[in-house]
């Protein structure tokens, strides 16, 4: 994600530069999702896995810059999954992960230094970039066709702004998980809770034994606070249900509605309870300064019993950790607070937005939206799943990933996308994060939510 991509002025510079280099490119600035190609025969022509990429021609020597919030160790399997693309097209991928992604992406786009492609984890941020910068390029036809074939309508809608399709889904994750140690549970005779009340009773039992039942960390650079937003979102889905959740996301009810206050107080019963946290790390306030990557690690030393975090956390455990039902760590579904709303599932994902319509960029977008890439990514490593219907669950190597994929592909699941990721960027990637951080470090529930409400764009 390196090239300057404000479409009108830069397109002229690109054409002049390419003609000076003697490169044949077929530009399409119509904005109608047309496909560009570079001419020549693709290096992978005739190979089954390259069939959809042949249309873009020979891309040898070209580079696609990718900017993302996905950093080590999760970045390694992403880079591995690009090999088929590079072999099929001749292009290379320059990957850059950053913990400052959400803040720096906007700065780079506004400063004329946008990447070729960005993996955007917030539909709300995508909407902001489309509406405020005009720099996001419409999704080309092959990408749109892939999304229609391999993804549900809801997923395509998350990548659509003002009835125009821009960004295909990439990965997905199930956030409604609690990580624990099966060995530790078995040794102490602890049972996996089936209801929220059971989970609180278990927490009390563990605390009485001298072990802190919970550990957590929410530090994440400019994105510090996001794990706490996930806690609240899961609670709202369970306490108030999907209809109220949607109203909250769309600001049809205020951010500090009594239903939201009730749910945050429920979360506070765990995260702000000194008897419960922060096992193996410190006191309640230590949650704010502990990185989300390190938040669950005390489980491995029997210093805490539970850590609420998404399916992708599987990739954070040290190499050699047995992540399985009878292993060192595994996860269980975050229990419901009542039977009224079924089994809600909070999830998230990324969307592939482009700031260039060069053929190598369109080819990369096409590859990432295909079943070919989904299965290559699955085989490359653990800690990742997708809602791509072309993904063969058997290719997922982790029991947690397989469980997550089954949940995502279950038509009866009450699934909702992460709320903060759908809200306007100023809230979802701003005041909500900082507000939850302030809440952890001492602010009360009502003033925290009222302060966030005051930041909602008019």
Structural commentary:
The chain has 458 residues and is α/β, with parallel strands linked by helices. It has 2 domains: 7-13 and 31-174 and 347-414, D-Maltodextrin-Binding Protein, domain 2 (3-Layer(aba) Sandwich), CATH 3.40.190.10; 177-345 and 425-453, D-Maltodextrin-Binding Protein, domain 2 (3-Layer(aba) Sandwich). The chain is built from 19 helices and 12 strands. It has helices at residues 7-21, 75-81, 83-89, 101-110, 123-133, 141-150, 153-158, 182-188, 196-208, 226-239, 242-249, 258-271, 286-289, 359-368, 371-380, 399-409, 419-422, 425-440, 445-453, and strands at 63-68, 92-97, 117-120, 160-161, 164-165, 168-174, 177-180, 212-214, 304-308, 330-333, 344-354, 414-417. The strands form 3 sheets. Strands 1, 2, 3, 6, 11 and 12 form a 6-stranded mixed sheet that branches. Strands 8-9-7-10 form a 4-stranded mixed sheet. Strands 4-5 form a two-stranded antiparallel sheet. Helix 2 (75-81) packs across helix 15, helix 10 crosses helix 12 (258-271) and helix 18 (425-440) packs antiparallel against helix 19 (445-453). The longest helix is centred in the last third of the chain and has 16 residues, at 425-440. The radius of gyration is 23 Å and the shape is globular. Keywords: Signal, Transport. This is ABC transporter substrate-binding protein. Belongs to the bacterial solute-binding protein 1 family.
């Amino acid at each position: 994600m390196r090239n300057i991509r404000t479409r009108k002025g830069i397109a002229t510079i690109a054409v002049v530069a390419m003609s000076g280099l003697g490169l044949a490119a077929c530009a399409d600035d119509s904005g109608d999702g047309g496909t560009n190609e570079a001419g020549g025969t693709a290096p992978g022509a005739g190979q089954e896995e390259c069939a959809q990429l042949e249309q873009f021609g020979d891309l040898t020597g070209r580079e696609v810059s990718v900017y993302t919030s996905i950093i080590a160790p999760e970045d390694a399997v992403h880079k591995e999954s690009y090999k088929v693309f590079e072999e099929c097209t001749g292009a290379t991928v320059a990957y850059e992960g950053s913990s400052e992604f959400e803040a720096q992406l906007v700065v780079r786009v506004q400063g004329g230094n946008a990447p070729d492609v960005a993996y955007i984890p917030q539909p709300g941020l995508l909407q902001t970039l489309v509406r405020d910068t005009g720099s996001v390029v419409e999704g080309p036809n092959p990408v749109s066709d892939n999304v229609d074939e391999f993804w549900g309508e809801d997923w395509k809608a998350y990548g659509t702004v003002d009835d125009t399709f821009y960004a295909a889904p990439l990965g997905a994750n199930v956030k409604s998980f609690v990580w624990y140690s099966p060995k530790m549970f078995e040794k102490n005779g602890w049972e996996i809770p089936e209801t929220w009340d059971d989970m609180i009773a278990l927490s009390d039992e563990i605390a009485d034994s001298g072990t802190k039942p919970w550990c957590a960390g929410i530090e994440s650079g400019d994105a510090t606070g996001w794990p706490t937003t996930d806690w609240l979102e899961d609670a709202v889905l369970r306490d108030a249900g999907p209809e109220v959740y949607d109203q909250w996301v769309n600001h049809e009810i205020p951010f500090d509605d009594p239903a939201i206050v009730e749910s945050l107080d429920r979360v506070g019963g765990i995260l702000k309870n000194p008897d419960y946290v922060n096992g193996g790390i410190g006191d309640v306030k230590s949650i704010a300064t502990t990185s989300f990557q390190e938040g669950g690690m005390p489980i491995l030393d029997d210093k805490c019993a539970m850590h609420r975090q998404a399916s992708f956390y599987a990739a954070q455990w040290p190499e050699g950790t047995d992540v399985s039902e009878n292993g060192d760590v595994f996860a269980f579904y975050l229990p419901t607070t009542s039977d009224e709303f079924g089994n809600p599932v909070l999830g998230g994902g990324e969307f592939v937005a482009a700031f260039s319509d060069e053929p190598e960029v369109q080819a990369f977008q096409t590859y990432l939206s295909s079943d070919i890439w989904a299965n290559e990514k699955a085989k490359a490593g653990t800690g990742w799943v997708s809602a791509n219907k072309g993904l063969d669950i058997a290719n997922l190597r982790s029991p947690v990933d397989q469980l997550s994929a089954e949940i995502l592909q279950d038509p009866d699941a009450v699934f909702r996308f992460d709320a903060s990721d759908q809200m306007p960027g100023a809230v979802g990637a701003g005041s909500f994060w900082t507000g939850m951080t302030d809440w952890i470090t001492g602010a009360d529930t009502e003033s925290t939510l009222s302060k966030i409400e005051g930041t909602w764009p008019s």
